Each structure stands twice: as structure tokens, then as C-alpha cells.
């Protein structure tokens, strides 16, 4: 890439430190933000000739008019700063984080006799905030448990010690119905209330076993003191905690304070799932979508997502389970790539969640805006298969024969990436003798498109041949004869490795197995195979009838079919008595069949 004098001078003076770089266009607008272990090496790499095959990156570099950078101490500092700048400026060529929700938190208010409530607004007033919760239902379940376990105040009175001693307050209805212990009139001390708040914090953090252990010790004390009434109240609290814990997804009690991340991606976006595990129970789960801008790798997307989600959910986990190694080092964090056991099961659970999220998003997109969904698939197919136009009309061909006998072919049709079954066609091979797939394909393609031209029917944008180089070359022979070479896109797909062949190119391409392009090609190919096999079986059955039953004088194919329908098999027909045969096909024909099978030949 060519560099202006201004850009060259900036690159020459770039430091070798970790940091964040910002690219600006001619209007002074930030168009890209990136992080680097070494600013000089990373920024210089953008301007190396033929450094990128990605066309979008080349477009980005052409638009860079100015570069600014910020030096930081470590690579992780660079990652966090990059994340914040992307969220602030949303540059055109950066990954787009698709997640604009405001999540709820549980707040423990900074006040005497603190209130506990949910909020979507975090105020820096010294209060404790726990969350955010990706699921309001999960948060409400925690708050309901707290309400059942503890009697907290919900009024907004300023319960200063002097005001309580001066009897400035009166008990309210909440006290009379048993929802509050009335600290406002001194019926509950600040020490007792703070102990309750300490237990609530442990519950919110997921440390239910710690609270249960404390309550069980307290229960034993009450029993020893013969205080059975309070012992029963504590027992009920323990039961509630155990019931709540049973609703959590328990993995293994030995796994404590661990984060789990997994990723799936396609050409357009990456999807990252996050699970928070405390004391063997999953207490939080969330999935985000990251829109690709410059064909970012899974490693880049996962690194960005880990930084974002750990910051958002205030995670301090020292262990993070991931599917593959990352170059970025997070301070005080150990990354684990499990191969077996409970941690591997956790990773698989996260992967199931992220795959489900992605599939549901695609389904919703197709339901809400099916045309847009279809257009996206067709645009991707056009790009992947190097076509000149979107393949809205696809025709696929498959040959079928049985040990060289009864050769047939099938054509299936997709319109707008969906089967158009009314346009499916069968072909009986007429000019080829023996098992010759190449010659059969040449015949079928010629017959199909000769008719299309004669009847002035629309040509497809793409022809798919079920087979490799040989079948594709045979199909091209027919298109050449008809003058259609170069006027219709055509590919071959070889079954074993799902290789995609193009005309006049002996080296196939391999599409990503996750790509929608390959899935559509596989689907239409499998449809052609199924449709061809059905026709082949029918023809083979009729051929079998013709070689045996229809050899009998006076027995037509229709009569033979009537016999088979009634007697179920040729064996039963052979063993049938003449009167039994006569009931089905009449006396004269029955006599012919009976004599055919019961006289020596």
C-alpha cells in the first residue's frame, strides 16, 4: 500500500510499546481502533504490499489520512482501552458489538439498615451492586429467595441512631404483616441487620453453601438451648436455600469461581457464550453477537468478548475455560482448555448454548424478514462460488443405476434457496449402454438445456453436478454444443470430501463446513440423489416384473401388478392354487400363470 509523507513520518516515530492505535479519515473521523503488543510492527503491517487478501482491509488502508496512538503498560491494558474506545466511537471498520440492552442489577444501598432492591441505573454513591443479570427471571428468583429468608425494611426512612433513640418513627404495616422486624423503633439492632446483609451478599455471589453452613451451626446452637421455635425458623431457611440451589445447573462442587467462554462464527459474525460458575452451580449465562467488519478471526473475537464480558459482569475469576489458546495474556488469569471431565462438559454446555443462540437468531431473521435472509444467503453463494449473479434459480443433476442396469438421472430445482418440487424432473437414459456416468451426464445435460432453449424457458443462474472433474467435464461438453459455455454458472461437488470443482480447473476448493453456501449445495445434491433413487427403484421394480411375470403369454404389466398387490410376492404367486389366481385375474389368465409355474420348463 502506498503511504503519504505524513503517514510515513508517523510510522517511523511509532514506539515498540504496547498500545492502541486510531485511524482517521480525511474528515478527521475515527474509522478504526486497534490494539497491539508492538505499535510500530502492527501499524506498519497494514501498509505492507499484498499483506491482506481481504478487500475491506485494503479499502480501510486507502482511507487512512491520520494515525494517533496511546501507549499503555501491558497488552491487556491495550485490549481494555480498545474495547472502551470502540464502544464510545463505534468506528465503521471495527467489530460491531450487537448488544444494546440495559441490564438489571441487585443493589444493596449504602445506608444504615441497607435496603436490597433491583435497578437498571448504577449510581456511584458507595452502594454495592451485583450483576448485571442477563436474565430478569434469574435476578427475581434471587430476590424472592432473599425476601423469603430475611425480613428487610423497604422504606426510605433515614434510620440514624439518634432518630431511633428519640422515637421519631412508628412501626408500619410491613411490621404487622411480618415482612420487617422494625429496626426503626429498635426492635432489630444494627449488628443483627448487618449480619443478615453479609449473608445476603454471599447468596447473591452464589456462595450458598457458606450461608447454609452458618445457618446449620446456628440451628445446632438453638437446639442445644432448647429454643425449638427459632430452630424451626432456621430449619425452614436451610430448606429454602437447598431448594434454590437445586434449581441451579449444578456441574461439580469442586469447580469454584470459574468463567467459561465458547464461540461459533460464520462469514458475517461471531457469537460468544459466557457462563459464570460458583461452587459448582451456573449462576449467570449470557451470549453476545459480534458483527465482523474485516474478516476477524475467532481468536480476535473471543479475546474481545472475554474482555468485554468480564468487565460487564464484574468477574474476578482466576480460571477461565476456553476452547482454544489465546495469544493475549490476561493478568492473574489462568486459561484452561479442557480435554475431558467436568470442565470439558462445562465447555460443551457453553457451546450448545451459543449454537442454539446462533440458530435461533437465524430462524428469527428468516421469519421477520425472509427476503432479506434469502438475499444474504444468495449474496454469500455468489461470492463463494465466483458467480456473476445471485443464484436465485439452481438446477442439480444426479445419475443412478443398479449394476449398470436401469440407468436414470434426476434433476432437482431450488428457487431462492428453497426446493421447488413441482419443477423436479426424471430422465431415462436413452443413448448410453452400460454403467457410464460421464456419458449419461452428457446426455441428460444436453437433453435438458436443448429443450430449455427450444421452449425459450429461463436458464438457471447455477447448475450443480453431483460428481467430480469427470462428470463436470461431460456436462461442459453438452453446454459447449448448445452454445451455453460461460452463460450459466456450473460447478461439480464430489461426495467424499465435499470438494467443489469449477470448469477447466483441476484443483477444487473446500468451503467452510459451517457455511450456508455448502449447506445449500449439499441440500440440493441430497434432494437429487433421493429423487433419483426413488425413480430408479420404480423402474427397477417394473423391470423385474417385465423379466418374469410379463413373460407369461397374455399377462400385461397391469395384470402382473394386480397379482403382486394381492399376493405380495412372486413366491406367493408361484405357490397359489389356480382358483385363487382366478379370483384376482380371471380363469383364462389364471390358467396361463398356473401352468407357467407348475410345468417343467
Supply the number of structural domains. 5
Basic shape: flat
| Average of pLDDT | 82
CATH architecture of the largest domain: 2-Layer Sandwich
Chain oligomer state? single chain
Tally of helical runs = 20
Number of strands: 21
Q: How does the major sheet shape up? A: 8 strands, mixed
Report the CATH C-level class of the largest domain.
Alpha Beta
Query: In angstroms, what separates the terminal alpha carbons?
Result: 87 Å
How much strand? 15-25%
- The helix content, as a percent range, equals 40-55%
**CATH superfamily of the largest domain, called what?**
UvrC, RNAse H endonuclease domain
Radius of gyration using CA atoms only: 37 Å
Class derived from helix and strand content: alpha+beta
Describe the structure.
Helices cover 45% and strands 19% of the residues. A hairpin with a 2-residue loop joins strand 14 (393-402) and strand 15 (405-415). The strands form four sheets. Strands 14, 15, 16, 17, 18, 19, 20 and 21 form an eight-stranded mixed β-sheet that branches. Strands 4, 8, 9, 10, 11, 12 and 13 form a seven-stranded mixed β-sheet that branches. It is α+β, with helices and mostly antiparallel strands. The protein is flat, with a radius of gyration of 37 Å.
Amino acid at each position: 500500500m502506498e503511504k503519504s509523507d505524513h503517514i510515513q513520518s508517523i510510522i517511523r516515530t511509532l514506539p515498540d510499546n504496547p498500545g492502541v492505535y486510531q485511524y482517521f479519515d480525511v474528515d478527521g473521523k475515527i474509522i478504526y481502533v486497534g490494539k497491539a503488543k508492538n505499535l510500530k510492527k502492527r501499524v506498519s503491517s497494514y501498509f505492507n504490499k499484498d499483506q491482506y487478501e481481504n478487500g475491506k482491509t485494503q479499502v480501510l488502508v486507502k482511507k487512512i489520512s491520520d494515525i494517533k496512538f496511546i501507549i499503555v503498560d501491558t497488552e491487556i491494558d491495550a485490549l481494555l482501552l480498545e474495547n472502551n474506545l470502540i464502544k464510545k466511537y463505534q468506528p465503521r471498520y471495527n467489530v460491531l458489538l450487537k448488544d444494546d440492552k440495559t441490564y438489571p442489577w441487585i443493589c444493596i444501598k449504602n445506608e444504615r439498615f441497607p435496603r436490597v432492591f433491583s435497578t437498571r441505573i448504577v449510581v456511584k454513591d458507595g452502594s454495592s451492586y451485583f450483576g448485571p443479570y442477563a436474565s430478569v427471571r434469574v435476578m427475581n428468583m434471587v430476590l424472592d429467595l432473599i425476601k423469603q429468608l430475611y425480613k428487610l425494611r423497604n422504606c426510605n426512612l433515614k434510620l440514624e441512631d439518634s432518630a431511633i433513640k428519640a422515637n421519631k418513627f412508628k412501626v408500619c404495616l410491613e411490621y404487622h404483616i411480618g415482612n420487617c422486624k422494625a429496626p426503626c423503633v429498635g426492635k432489630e439492632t444494627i449488628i443483627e441487620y448487618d449480619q443478615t446483609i453479609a449473608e445476603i451478599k454471599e447468596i447473591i455471589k452464589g456462595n450458598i453453601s457458606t450461608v447454609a453452613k452458618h445457618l446449620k451451626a446456628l440451628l445446632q446452637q438453638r437446639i442445644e438451648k432448647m429454643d425449638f421455635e427459632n430452630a424451626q425458623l432456621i430449619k425452614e431457611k436451610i430448606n429454602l436455600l437447598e431448594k434454590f440451589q437445586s434449581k441451579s445447573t449444578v456441574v461439580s462442587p469442586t469447580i469454584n469461581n470459574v468463567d467459561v467462554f465458547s464461540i461459533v462464527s460464520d462469514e458475517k459474525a461471531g457469537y460468544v457464550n459466557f457462563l459464570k460458575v460458583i461452587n459448582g452451580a451456573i449462576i449467570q449465562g449470557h451470549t453476545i453477537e459480534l458483527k465482523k467488519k474485516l474478516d476477524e478471526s475467532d481468536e480476535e473475537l473471543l479475546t474481545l468478548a472475554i474482555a468485554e464480558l468480564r468487565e460487564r459482569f464484574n468477574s474476578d475469576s482466576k480460571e477461565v475455560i476456553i476452547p482454544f489458546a489465546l495469544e493475549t495474556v490476561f493478568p492473574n488469569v489462568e486459561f484452561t482448555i479442557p480435554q475431558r471431565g467436568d470442565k470439558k462438559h462445562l465447555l460443551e454446555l457453553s457451546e450448545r448454548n451459543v449454537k442454539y443462540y446462533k440458530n435461533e437468531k437465524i430462524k428469527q431473521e428468516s421469519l421477520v424478514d425472509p427476503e432479506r435472509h434469502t438475499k444474504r444467503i444468495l449474496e454469500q453463494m455468489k461470492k463463494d462460488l465466483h458467480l456473476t449473479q445471485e443464484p436465485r434459480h439452481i438446477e442439480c443433476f444426479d445419475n443412478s443405476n443398479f449394476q449398470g442396469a436401469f440407468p436414470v438421472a434426476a434433476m432437482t430445482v431450488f428457487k431462492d434457496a428453497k426446493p421447488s418440487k413441482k419443477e423436479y424432473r426424471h430422465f431415462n437414459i436413452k443413448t448410453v449402454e452400460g454403467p457410464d456416468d460421464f456419458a449419461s451426464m452428457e446426455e441428460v445435460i444436453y437433453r435438458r438445456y436443448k429443450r430449455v432453449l427450444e421452449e425459450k424457458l429461463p436458464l438457471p443462474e447455477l447448475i450443480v453436478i453431483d460428481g467430480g472433474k469427470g462428470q463436470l467435464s461431460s456436462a461442459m461438453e453438452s453446454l459447449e454444443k448448445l452454445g451455453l459455455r460461460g452463460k450459466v454458472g456450473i460447478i461439480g461437488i464430489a461426495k467424499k470430501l465435499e470438494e467443489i470443482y469449477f470448469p477447466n480447473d483441476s484443483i477444487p476448493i473446500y468451503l467452510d463446513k459451517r457455511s450456508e453456501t455448502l449447506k445449500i449445495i449439499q441440500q440440493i445434491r441430497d434432494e437429487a440423489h433421493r429423487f433419483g433413487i426413488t425413480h430408479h427403484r420404480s423402474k427397477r421394480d417394473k423391470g423385474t416384473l417385465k423379466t418374469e411375470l410379463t413373460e407369461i403369454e397374455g399377462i400385461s404389466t397391469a395384470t402382473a401388478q394386480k397379482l403382486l398387490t394381492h399376493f405380495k410376492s412372486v413366491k406367493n404367486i408361484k405357490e397359489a392354487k389356480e382358483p385363487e389366481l382366478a379370483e384376482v385375474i380371471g380363469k383364462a389368465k389364471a390358467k396361463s400363470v398356473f401352468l407357467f409355474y407348475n410345468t417343467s420348463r
